[in-house]
Design a protein that fits this description.
- It is a single chain.
- Helices cover 32% and strands 25% of the residues.
- It is of the alpha/beta class.
- Strands 1, 2, 3, 4, 5, 6 and 7 form a 7-stranded mixed sheet that branches.
- The longest helix is centred in the first third of the chain and has 17 residues.
- It is elongated.
């Protein structure tokens, strides 16, 4: 049995697109507060691990997969925007710049073994006009994504370049998660 510790349908789709059958999705409620001075790649791994452990407690007969994503511009960490005003500020920040997407992954096997990794992918976003930003916010396409921007769908026309795992930017790194599962003995 494979449980995705998330309510994000795009993460489920990524796993299913590479042939991994998700038997159940459970959204864990964990404190995702970024600790003062916490390194971004350690943060995403810590949160992914917390999510997986929370679901594993009541599902010890299953493989648990969790992920947590953030966006970074320089040393500035961008989580999911709380509202349109915050999303506009994020778009102002990423417009015309390189943005890094970090996703922490945790897989726990039925016997309790854990694998925790992170994946980093970069994207260069074109300089967006104020009208493009406002139109994009109105779509509501990316209010659930770190950095307030999704690289697929409508917004893909604003992405000049991607370096790294495409699936990592849209939810989780299929390559890493598949290898983590295989390494812990998962058989599809």
């Amino acid at each position: 049995m494979l449980i995705l510790a998330s309510s994000a349908k795009h993460r489920k789709k990524i796993l299913e697109d590479v042939g991994l059958k998700v038997d159940k999705m459970i959204s864990p409620d964990v404190d995702e507060t970024l600790l003062k001075g916490e390194n971004p790649h350690l943060y995403v791994q810590r949160i992914a691990k917390l999510k997986a452990q929370k679901i594993y407690k009541d599902n010890k007969n299953a493989f648990i997969v969790s992920a947590d994503s953030i966006a970074c511009v320089g040393k500035r960490v961008l989580l999911k925007p709380k509202d349109d005003v915050e999303q506009k500020k994020m778009l102002d920040l990423i417009s015309g710049r390189k943005i890094s997407y970090l996703t922490g992954h945790c897989v726990i096997s039925p016997d309790g073994r854990k694998s925790v990794r992170y994946c980093k992918t970069s994207a260069v976003i074109k300089r967006m006009t104020d009208k493009e930003k406002q139109d994009y916010i109105k779509l509501g396409e990316a209010k659930y994504y770190a950095g307030g921007f999704a690289v697929d769908g409508f917004s893909s026309k604003y992405v000049k370049q991607i370096s790294g795992s495409y699936t990592n930017i849209i939810g989780l790194c299929a390559y890493s998660v598949n290898n983590m599962l295989v390494g812990l003995g998962y058989k599809n």
